[in-house]
Design goal:
It comes from Streptomyces racemochromogenes. Keywords: Signal. This is Secreted protein. With 220 residues, the chain is an alpha+beta fold. Helices cover 26% and strands 30% of the residues. It is built from 6 helices and 8 strands; from the N terminus they run αβαββαββααββαβ. An 8-stranded antiparallel beta barrel has the order 1-3-2-6-7-5-8-4, surrounded by 5 helices. A hairpin with a 3-residue loop joins strand 6 and strand 7. Helix 5 packs across helix 6. It is globular. 46% of the residues are buried.
Length: 220
Amino acid sequence: MKRLRVLVVVGVLALGTAGAGTAQASPVAAASHCPAGEVFATDNTAVITDPDDPRLSTRLIRFDREVRRIIGANGAVAGRSTLLDGVFWSGDLKQTTYERSREFDVNEVGREGLHHIAGVIAKQYHQESVLTFRCLPHGSPEADAVEIRASGVSAARLREALAADPRAREELGGGSVTLGGQLILVAPVADLPLARRLTTALGVDWDKAEVRYGDEEFVS
């Protein structure tokens, strides 16, 4: 998955770094628990443009088990796995695409280990790339991305918000929503103001959003 096909919200976050003066960190961020690493992945290789496509109803149960085995076989510990509905903008097709994926919490893993695990997943499931995110302290020089999590968002609402904001869909690419209605939006630190704008356009109270700093990587 590329940036325009994640989210992977993706995508993988706190606001208010130097140079991003219009964005302020949420107080939720300080109390939030974050695993050592996160992997956003799918076994789908098709481009789906119909939100009612039956392939989007899969629960990826076998994929869940297989990725957990990959994580364990490579020296890490698999934590929670969350099913996601992704809504992304395809610059090539000039239209919205959809994807069912999973976010995997990965514990007892470092940067290189997480990179290796994502590479194995990408190769085994013929993915263009797999997104990883590591939570880091606010001032870490490695923190190049943010991950925003916010409740009360549906995939349909995310689709509408992206359609109404051409710059957000072009720059951010899209995001994902859990089946329970939680937005997961991963974005570069430089796009924090834009990510906040999209999040608030979804009707989210910014002070209640969970915001994390971290390092994102798209692993091929």
